[in-house]
Design a protein that fits this description.
By secondary structure, this protein is of the alpha/beta class. It contains 10 helices and 10 strands. The strands form 2 sheets. The protein has a 6-stranded mixed sheet with strand order 6-7-8-3-9-10, with helices on both faces. A hairpin with a 2-residue loop joins β4 and β5. α3 runs parallel beside α6. The longest helix has 16 residues. The two termini are 30 Å apart.
Length: 239
């Protein structure tokens, strides 16, 4: 069943600044959709527009049958969309538990139960529940940021460059966490510079170039494409 549909979306950071130039994208329930492309292609802008941080100048965005275009971020979050930005996605001076409490601000009555569920799902956070977020490693902070987003029990999780700055080992662990989140029924739209690993775990993918969709389809097909491998996967052979 179609969960998200983006149709002809034009958006940017000013009246005459069109970063997205008519983007189309569709996602089904429970799938991972990778958005890849060169720097400046509009990948993060697309996620911010879906999340309501930017408003489309033209085009439509629907979560199932509900239009999202023009709604404020809080309203979109209540409808089931959670956004994890690349930077400043945790409160450094607050404890892990306090960060999760902040993540549950939309439904305070359910916060305690959802924190218990988060600690059961992410034992590394449970072990560090009283530590300040600033003491966590980069990978642990990303897990905390995702756990905060899951506190609203979203149908769709938007991840902006989740592996940025992580070591290869930490990135691999993070992608395993993303797969586990999907196994719990959450659909994930992921912008990722590590295109090879993103395409490896994704069901479908979209290649953005200069604010437009250049390719869209099954992630395995895009990963096998020689031109995409040459430009975005470092020429790595398909396995």
């Amino acid at each position: 069943m179609t969960l998200l549909r983006v149709a002809g979306v034009v958006a940017g950071y000013g009246r005459d600044d069109e970063v997205l130039k008519g983007v189309d994208l569709a996602m089904n329930d429970g799938e991972i959709h990778a958005v890849i492309g060169p720097n400046g292609a509009g990948k993060s802008t697309l996620l911010k527009t879906i999340a309501g941080l930017l408003h489309p100048a033209r085009g439509t965005i629907h979560l199932r049958d509900t239009p999202l275009g023009g709604l404020p971020p809080r309203a979109i979050s209540r409808l089931g969309v959670a956004f994890v930005p690349q930077e400043q996605n945790v409160f450094p001076s607050m404890s892990v538990r306090e960060n999760l409490e902040m993540g549950g601000f939309i439904d305070p009555a359910a916060t305690r139960q959802r924190i218990d569920a988060a600690f059961a799902r992410f034992p590394l956070l449970a072990e560090r529940r009283h530590r300040a977020a600033r003491t966590l490693s980069g990978g642990q902070r990303q897990v905390l940021a995702m756990a905060m987003a899951l506190m609203v029990e979203p149908a769709l999780l938007l991840l902006d460059e989740p592996s940025a700055g992580l070591s290869p080992v930490a990135a691999e662990q993070l992608f395993a966490t993303i797969l586990d989140i999907r196994r719990h029924g959450v659909a994930i739209a992921m912008v990722e510079q590590n295109a090879s690993q993103a395409l490896e775990i994704a069901d479908r993918a979209t290649l953005l170039v200069d604010g437009r969709v250049s390719r869209d389809g099954a992630a395995a097909i895009l990963r096998a494409d020689p031109e995409i491998r040459r430009l975005f996967l470092g020429g790595a052979p398909h396995d």
